[in-house]
Amino acid sequence: MGLVSDAALKITFKGGIAMKPKEFKDKLRGVVNLVMTPFKENGELDEEALKISTRKLVERCKGEEIVVLALGTTGEFYAMSEAENCRVAEIVVDEVNGVFPVMIGSARAATQNTIEASKAMQSIGADAVLVTHPYYIMPNLESIKAHYKAVADALDIGVVIYNNSATSKLWLDTASVQELSKVENIVGLKENTNNPMIFLNMLQKLDPNDIAIFAGLGHVMYQFMCFYGCTGYVTEFSNFAPELTLDLYKAGQAKDIAGIRKAVDTMNILWDYMDALAARHSKIPSVLPPSMVPGGMPYYQSLNKAAMDLMGIPGGKTRAPMYNLTKQEYAELAQVLTKMGLQVVGK
Would you say residue 180 lies in a domain? Predict the structure, then answer.
């Protein structure tokens, strides 16, 4: 087991001491902010923009239940070198400075590469790593479980399972997650199923003392699962409208149906525009069934970076081959944000 002594857990960084796994589990609740990685027009990593956007999130959300998640799919980890991934992690950890828990994506296609990336994030000061199933290849169930156990065994910080069939084409059932949750430092589950009954089964069967379960499909699933013990949800909206995301989280915890409906309806104004973008442009060339390939996938990174720009927060560009909004679409998005009740300040 990777957990050894308290001394080994004291990984120092600018923010202080990295959390022990069980402490991270207890704080894995609320709004899980998906950090957008900004790139310049020439494709270079925009470090200053990342510092500013992370700093603004911390300033606006102090005292709230927030978890910062960098270098997931939304953070375009796949489009960067290992050195760039580490630099993004360093900036985020430094700017958060211990105010909120920090979780860093470290998933790679092979187990040893995932271990090496995870160790790097641990040394930088992440409180936990987010690991999805091996992708591109399709190992069997026992190999997937062995993958997670090997990563956990190599680390002293928390490990969060990312049950994301959209990117890996694999999915872990409740019994398998239950087995993995008994590994001492596997403490979280980002559940990405779009089936409410399957999600509910996870919440009912998994021991909350072992593992915290939050909604990987954001407000879409949280609006239902908040009634059954879901600890929170991931969202990119908190980069430019954190108050809105906190309104939904708090309404969910209070079981306030009217408040949930109001927040979700507001968020869906933006998602409706994303669907319109997808309809306007060509469909994704994929053999996967439509339910496995969200129509807005090529656009949501650029859309949210543009929303940040329009709200006065540097969002930057996406890296190829992902899409970047046109000038006309920026103008349309400004109208969408205004319709959501947000005050647009950028162009």
Answer: yes
